[in-house]
Amino acid sequence: MKHLNSIKKIVDEGQFEEAHSALEDLLEMGPKNVEAIKLKAALFAHVGRFDDEEAAWRRVIDIDNEDEDAIRYYQGAQLEDREHYYFTDVLPSGGRRYLAYPRALVSVSFIGLMGCVAFLALTRLSGNTFQESPGILFATFLATVVSPWFAIIYMYVKTIRSISLSNDGFEVSTRLRNIMLPWKEIDRLILAHSDDLESSHLRLVVLPKDNGLPPLSIDMTPETSAVRARKHLLAEMKDHFPKIEHEAMGSIKVEAAKLRRF
Asked: In this predicted model, which residue has the larger pLDDT, 73 or 198?
């Protein structure tokens, strides 16, 4: 039987299945080992097994109802419940639409605003420098104002606007296009995870049966995803497509040129 520190080294090596097995052995000997249960919860969250993650945190709270990590988890769960209320709506034809919160667009917009402020400050503080050197003035304007706004327009057009789930299929919408994949045309739904628990990344990969349809890859990482109420979205997807697989990103073979990333 391995000790917790040894299991953490296994996790660092990306051997998640071995780590799960070792944690089960450890918890058989000490079922109230809170740190082992927390590590198990972290592994479940990393690969997108959210129902198992919730069960692990429930074990923690049953042992210690004042555990700060467990309290933070349940606060996050309450936030997702509120997101499900505010960021989703029922479709007239049945099903539900999940509205996106484009974090990347918000970040780029803030940079654009700061660029405008910086340009105004530079023109005011530089005295006659810009008047005597119009080339420098133009280059500064391009760098601080024009370039960020090009990025804003690009992100506005590209970023995901909503995901809709209905009896007909799975639809991803941006400002310019809607990509609809009927459930019967989907071959695999995969929650693809990174190999590193510390820099955890999670993506929902949708692989169609027909090579003429585009495969999709949607960011589901909590810190960067535009998708709100992720756990509710995945739970509802299981109603239409029960088998959601869990794999490492490197093991999924998709032609990069065809993949649509959001």
From this structure: 73
Q: Could you list the residue range(s) of the whole structural domain that residue 135 is in? A: 103-158
Question: Is 119's pLDDT higher than 80?
Answer: yes
What confidence tens digit (pLDDT) does each residue in 168-184 have? 999 999 988 899 999 99
- Is pLDDT above 70 for 61? yes
Question: Does the residue 234 lie in any domain?
Answer: yes
Give the Cα separation of 152 and 220 in Å (integer): 22
170 and 239 share a domain? yes
Classify strands 186-193 and 216-219 as parallel, antiparallel or unpaired.
unpaired
CATH code of the domain in which 14 resides: 1.25.40.10
Tokens describing residue 110 = 């803030």
Q: What 3-state class would DSSP assign to 20?
A: helix
Q: Which helix (H) or strand (E) holds 43?
A: helix 34-47
Q: Is-contact 19 7, C-beta < 8 A? A: yes
58 lies in the same domain as 133? no
Query: What is the arithmetic mean of pLDDT over 43-63?
Result: 93
